[in-house]
Design brief:
- The chain is mainly α.
- It has one domain.
- The protein contains eight helices and no strands.
- Helix 2 packs antiparallel against helix 6 and helix 4 packs antiparallel against helix 5.
- The protein is globular and about 50 Å long.
Length: 213
Amino acid sequence: MQRYAQRQRYIHVLKWATALLMIKVLLSILSNYVDYFPPNFDAYFLLDREPYFFGLYGVAFYVHILFTPLALVSGMLLQSEGLRRRFPARHRLLGRMQVVGILVLLVPSSLWMSAYANGGRVAGSGFAVLAVATGFCAIMGWRRAREREFKKHRYWMSRCFLMLCSAVVLRLISGAANVFGLESEWTYPITAWAAWILPLCAFELIEKCNQKK
């Protein structure tokens, strides 16, 4: 019993530390938005994008950067067991809004932007697969909730949230590569895949270990 309580405390601290790290990185991402309103084509992410920016790409870009922070914040709230138990009706409403936003806004904008991704086709295909997988997990999570299979619902929505967090993980890996001098022409393409595959594999491994106990 004592070991279990200690383990729960460690998990609680880890969750809070992870949330604080995510918020810090998210604020860092938002600080770059001054270059996007209006678009500054000398900024890193917008370099060489001016020829095709003022069209569907620009629409997808602004939809993506405006919805993604909202999806991350709402995802953190939806992952909270305490908030779910205290406010079940609001949890359901926010969950529906999350799923609709992912399917209507995030997935289409991500797919369109993936065709123009830095890092070429390898990075672009990574972002495209990520978009489809995120939408699939959102649909499966919604279906399981409708069928009142809430344990499976939480599994699918946890996977979905991890994929949303790839935006944060991507910047953490890229920042670490820059600090340790590991940047190359393959850094970004590899990171485009690793930013969501590695957290997802870790999640699946932890789930399997928990099921064996």
